[in-house]
Amino acid sequence: MMKPARTKPPRRALAKKPSNNGQKDPVGVYCRVRPLSPSDQECCIEVINETTVQLHPPDGCKVNKNGEYKETQYSFKQVFGTHHTQKDLFDVVAKLLVEDLIRGKNGLLFTYGVTGSGKTYTMTGSPGQGGLLPRCLHMIFNSIRDLQAKRYVFKTDDKNGIEVQNMVEALLDRQKRDAQPQIVPKTPLSRQKPEPEFADMINIEDGCKVEDIDEDSVYSVFVSYIEIYNNYIYDLLEEVPIDPIKPKWNTPGKNAEFIPPQSKILREDQNHNMYVAGCTEVEVKTTEEAFDVFWKGQKRRRIANTQLNRESSRSHSVFMLKLAQAPLDADGENVLQEKEQITVSQLSLVDLAGSERTNRTKAEGSRLREAGNINQSLMTLRTCIEALRENQMCGTNKMVPYRDSKLTHLFKNYFDGEGKVRMIVCVNPKADDHEESLQVMRFAEMTQEVEVARPVDKPICGLTPGRRYRNQAFKEELTRRLEERGGPVIGESEEQTAIELLFQSFPPIPSCELLDANDNQTLPQLIEALEKRRRIRQMMSEEFTKSVTSFRSMLQDFNGVVAAKENIAQGKVTEKERTIISQKSEIERLEKKVKTLEYKIDILEKTTSIYEGEKRNLQQDLESQQQKLQRQLSDKRRLEARLQGMASENAMKWEKECERRVAAKQLEMQNKLWVKDEKLKQLKAIVTDSKSERPERPSREKDREPKVPVRSISPSPVSVCVTWNL
Ligand code: ADP
Ligand code: MG
């Protein structure tokens, strides 16, 4: 934001700024839908509810490329339809900005939309329908009413700062002003009849004001009015010296010699706020006076646009309201003569150029180029908003190209620093504007996502409150008592000094020039006049002594009253202090409780983390055990398979061995059998032979006779053996 443009010496500029704890608020975006003009048939925008509007394409282009009927909805902080009045809009959008201004905080309010969408109607208004600008002025002057400083007590310097002057300096400046023509009429406009053209616009029947205004301060409003066209800044309030022979640009006429306005440059002040160098700042005391200044600027703008053949909808106008405030001294009588106690806040009301693309206005040649440039500044505004949004949402640090246009450069501080930024997007529901309205809505939606730092509260000056009213009560009491005693009444006008009054009551001194030697009249007349003066002086001196005595006694009485009031006030303060102490102890108790609870939470969190750690370890153990088990199972399975393989191999081996051995045994047995057989045969032969020789043989021998083995012997070698054993 713009830091409150305090007029501080450089040493103080480094003083620690009160912090707002980094709090931010999004840019407040509001939407106003103007009524359809009688010449337009089709309405393409519908207010759905308090915060939403719906756009639908005009007949004939109701389907998009994909053949769909496309309606789009957009949401805002609030939507104002045709039934909403200028006051409704002011109450919601601008009131808070004026309250902030009076509390020393800055604000920026701008209207955005295509030409004819109602930007100027919203900002300035029309006869009988005062817009935001006159309403802001009305609320400011309604709030600072009789708390305003006398003209020239505050004085602007050429570095965007404001100084405070004492009564005498201010009086001298007022006299100087009276001696020369100015843009502001010498007689305050409140006592003049305002121009009929705008009288209806500022006739605002609204008693709204800031309630809890600091009454121990004095206030003063300064206005400036600039126009940005083709990336050049022009001061609409600049006084062009009038040549009595040749008519100048502020005198419209066909053959008038026209002096084109000089463009201004932007500078940065010591608080890094941007300002238009050398821009006229006019101190104004009433709504009428301020609006008159605005109206004059407006007229000049119109003349310049006609004379220079400009496209007026392509220029941005900025009306700046600066409020200077400074505390009264400890006596509540004069403004505290301390530069660093001055607070300056600013509210900028911006009526932007039409946001439509150039081809719409059918501009040609140099006008087209200029218009391109103007469009460029709105493009830069869009780029800046985009960059800000990206930086804030993605945490990036992309450079915001404020310097690319005068418009964005001038308002850099509002987006980069602190303050409130509000935007009203104006839309015309007619079919021709549909395409452009979509662009406006998209920009508005993006803007809503940008956040701006919340402004800090104005520091308190440290003097006891109620100074102005104590001083006023004292003056009233003094006047009353002086009246009671028939003494002089304290005059309201400071210019009518006591010394002047005093000199008026003395008889004039006659001429003391002696005409001739026999002149015996001059001297006695002189003596008589001087004698008279001496008597008056003596009388006055006596009167003065009397007055001093009565004043002294009155002062004592008054002091008594003040002391009594102070006692009461002291009692109240003590009571309040007691409440504060009890509240403080309550806060302390709660803080302690919070600490204990935080400690407990801490312990619980630690326990939880320990348990969680244990759980994690156990889970890990479990997992590793499971893996081990799995491994063992698969090992076992492998072993089983191997053992099975080995067993079957062994069985086969043994079977083969057995078969081999059986076969060998069979062969052996067969051989033996054969041998036996042979032997038997031989035996048989022997027996047969011997029988024929000896017919009988003992029976026992018979039993022992081996049986003749048959060729088909039992297959088992065992049975063979058994047979043999038998
Ligand atoms: P812009 O400044 O956006 O180009 P204007 O404010 O000049 O548009 O508005 C164009 C016309 O529409 C003016 O005649 C104005 O009075 C009228 N107008 C705009 N908004 C409204 C509204 N909300 N109610 C009534 N008339 C309106
Ligand atoms: Mg306009």
From TrEMBL:
Residues of the Kinesin motor domain: 26-450
Name of a matching Pfam family: Kinesin
UniProt-listed GO biological process terms: microtubule-based movement; mitotic spindle midzone assembly
GO molecular function, one term: ATP hydrolysis activity
Location in or out of the cell: Cytoplasm, Cytoskeleton
GO CC terms of this entry: kinesin complex; microtubule; nucleus
Regions annotated as coiled coil: 573-649
Keywords on record: ATP-binding, Coiled coil, Cytoplasm, Cytoskeleton, Microtubule, Motor protein, Nucleotide-binding
Amino-acid positions noted as binding ATP in the UniProt annotation, renumbered to this chain: 113-120
Region (Disordered): 1-27, 686-715
Compositional bias segments (type: Basic and acidic residues): 690-708
Stretches with biased composition (Basic residues): 1-15
InterPro entries on file: Kinesin-like_fam (IPR027640), Kinesin_motor_CS (IPR019821), Kinesin_motor_dom (IPR001752), Kinesin_motor_dom_sf (IPR036961), P-loop_NTPase (IPR027417)
Family: Belongs to the TRAFAC class myosin-kinesin ATPase superfamily. Kinesin family.
The protein's name: Kinesin-like protein
Organism: Eleutherodactylus coqui (Puerto Rican coqui)
Highest classification ranks of the organism: Eukaryota, Metazoa, Chordata, Craniata, Vertebrata
